[in-house]
Amino acid sequence: MSEHYDLIIIGGGPGGYVAALRAAQLDLKVAVVEKRDALGGTCLNEGCIPSKALLDSSELFALARDRFDRHGILIDAPQLDLAKMLKRKRDIIQRLTRGIASLFKKGGIALVNGTGRLGPDIDDLRQVLVTTADGEQTLQGKTILLAAGSEAIELPHLPFDGKQIGQARDALEYSEVPEHLVVLGGGYIGLELGSVWLRLGAKVTVVEMLEEILPNTDLEIAVQLRRSLEKQGMTILTGTRVTAAATGEVVTVTLEGDSPGDLVCDKLLVAAGRRPATAGLGLEEAGIRLTDQKQIEVDENYATSKAGIYAIGDLVAGPMLAHKAMDEGITFVERLLGRLPEVDYDLVPGIMYTMPELAAVGATEEQLKERGVVYNVGKFPFMASGRARCMDEPEGMVKVLAAPDSGHILGVHIMGPKASELIAEAVSIMAFGGSIEDVELIMHPHPTLSEAFKEAALAAAGKAVHA
């Protein structure tokens, strides 16, 4: 006889493991099915965390090479120990995954390593069939949560070989710096990983089929970031498609569009987006409906079309971001128990950890124009920030979009130092329905980068002091 659980979760990524921890706190008996050897999903094992580890390491390498002398720090040219850099990244992953496993043990959460799929209903209990190294195991529970995440999109004409043509997980494990890396896709993943290898000495060419990088980003900010990356040495070809790639001793990439021709490189990184990892979950057999975008259709409680089965994270609509999945995991559990928290999908921040960083929340100028919304714009350049100047990072700006009459903040877009940290204040103000006047009344310490947000907000009302 299989053991019975209150909640069975398929997927131990940010959405799944956070839901499990919250459910255990609320005294539910929980089991998590995870196909990887370690918890944390794509984010922790081959996405957010390893990429940030390499981004930070490569940034330090570039600073030592290119900027230390500006501060009066004279050193010999730094030497790269890539193997040690990669080991540091792996050690960070190991520590964090072990930390989650420790929390599971503390919370009494059962972890089953294997590939899970939905099984047939039996009375009031639902089944999850798990293929493990020791054979098939059956779990039974009152409720099932699907949190299997997403997977990289593999293009039919550019199949992954894990060596010359690969996805993000491959680009995080290159054993040597590519002489020439071609990146297909000018989104967050492509630009972040392209930045890593550019800083470490590779020639990097980014190919984007749209007319500008970072679709859905405020256009002014996207253009500024593109100029910054090009100034750093990155080649960006927009309005251009990769139609073929021939492998051999080198990779010959064929381009069509605004920049036609062939590129010869030793690595091709395909960063063409991600799709829900729905294959193998048994959705069709269970009668679970999908949307036109092949995501699982859910209601406000994350319930699917099948009673007792729920879904969150990258499997459902919305941006494929770890923090969105985490909030959905907690909201799902609490709604399951009769509470009514909500996820505000208008205030999901997006961050890119290039140098300078980019962070945004709310509407872009283009979206407001399309909706016919009247707005004011306030900007404050980091070159006018004393703190940014001292840090030798004066590039970029804070841009605030606000309603003219009420001062209600509609969107905040930041390109500059520590944008990933600065955006949290904007999210908080907007979550409370705050206005420019609220920002004005909050004392910001001096000298800090946070003052740039206050000055940009004041600028939207014509009150800026330092701009």
How does this model look, in words?
This protein has 467 residues and is an alpha/beta fold. The protein has helices at 14-25, 41-46, 48-66, 82-107, 168-171, 188-199, 219-231, 283-286, 322-336, 365-371, 386-390, 419-431, 436-441, 450-460, and strands spanning 4-10, 30-34, 110-113, 115-118, 126-132, 135-146, 150-152, 165-166, 180-184, 203-207, 235-237, 240-247, 251-257, 261-265, 267-270, 274-276, 309-311, 350-352, 357-362, 376-381, 397-402, 409-416. The chain has three domains: 4-151 and 275-345, FAD/NAD(P)-binding domain; 165-272, FAD/NAD(P)-binding domain; 356-460, 2-Layer Sandwich (Enolase-like, domain 1). Strands 1, 2, 3, 4, 5, 6 and 17 form a seven-stranded mixed β-sheet that branches. A five-stranded parallel β-sheet has the order 8-15-9-10-11. A five-stranded antiparallel β-sheet has the order 18-19-22-21-20, with helices on both faces. The model has no long low-confidence stretch (mean pLDDT 96).
